Amino acid sequence: MSIDKDTAARIAKLARIRVEEGELDALAGEFNTILGFIEQLGEVDVEGVEPMVSVTPQRLKRRDDVVTDGDQQAKILANAPDAREGFFAVPKVVE
């Protein structure tokens, strides 16, 4: 697959990237280089290779999923400029 100047301009537009007219040829060349690398990856024989999540085999630490209130209301409200009755107090914005 080859990317031409018009296709590079369309890709730039879809990505909302402003590319000057004079830079479109270079951008198309970069896209073609990237596609070449992808084609090389497709040539690698991966038959029988198991997919991996990490480069080191390890299990994630797990914890019980318990719902709590966090018990930090006082700490959180201490940062508020105005707190009343255990809640944030904000100016009225609706009449």
From TrEMBL:
<dbReference type="GO" id="GO:0006450">
    <property type="term" value="P:regulation of translational fidelity"/>
</dbReference>
<dbReference type="InterPro" id="IPR003837">
    <property type="entry name" value="GatC"/>
</dbReference>
<comment type="subunit">
    <text>Heterotrimer of A, B and C subunits.</text>
</comment>
<dbReference type="GO" id="GO:0005524">
    <property type="term" value="F:ATP binding"/>
</dbReference>
<keyword id="KW-0547">Nucleotide-binding</keyword>
<keyword id="KW-0067">ATP-binding</keyword>
<comment type="similarity">
    <text>Belongs to the GatC family.</text>
</comment>
<dbReference type="InterPro" id="IPR036113">
    <property type="entry name" value="Asp/Glu-ADT_sf_sub_c"/>
</dbReference>
<keyword id="KW-0648">Protein biosynthesis</keyword>
<comment type="function">
    <text>Allows the formation of correctly charged Asn-tRNA(Asn) or Gln-tRNA(Gln) through the transamidation of misacylated Asp-tRNA(Asn) or Glu-tRNA(Gln) in organisms which lack either or both of asparaginyl-tRNA or glutaminyl-tRNA synthetases. The reaction takes place in the presence of glutamine and ATP through an activated phospho-Asp-tRNA(Asn) or phospho-Glu-tRNA(Gln).</text>
</comment>
<protein>
    <recommendedName>
        <fullName>Aspartyl/glutamyl-tRNA(Asn/Gln) amidotransferase subunit C</fullName>
        <ecNumber>6.3.5.-</ecNumber>
    </recommendedName>
</protein>
<dbReference type="GO" id="GO:0050567">
    <property type="term" value="F:glutaminyl-tRNA synthase (glutamine-hydrolyzing) activity"/>
</dbReference>
<keyword id="KW-0436">Ligase</keyword>
<dbReference type="GO" id="GO:0070681">
    <property type="term" value="P:glutaminyl-tRNAGln biosynthesis via transamidation"/>
</dbReference>
<dbReference type="Pfam" id="PF02686">
    <property type="entry name" value="GatC"/>
</dbReference>
<dbReference type="GO" id="GO:0006412">
    <property type="term" value="P:translation"/>
</dbReference>
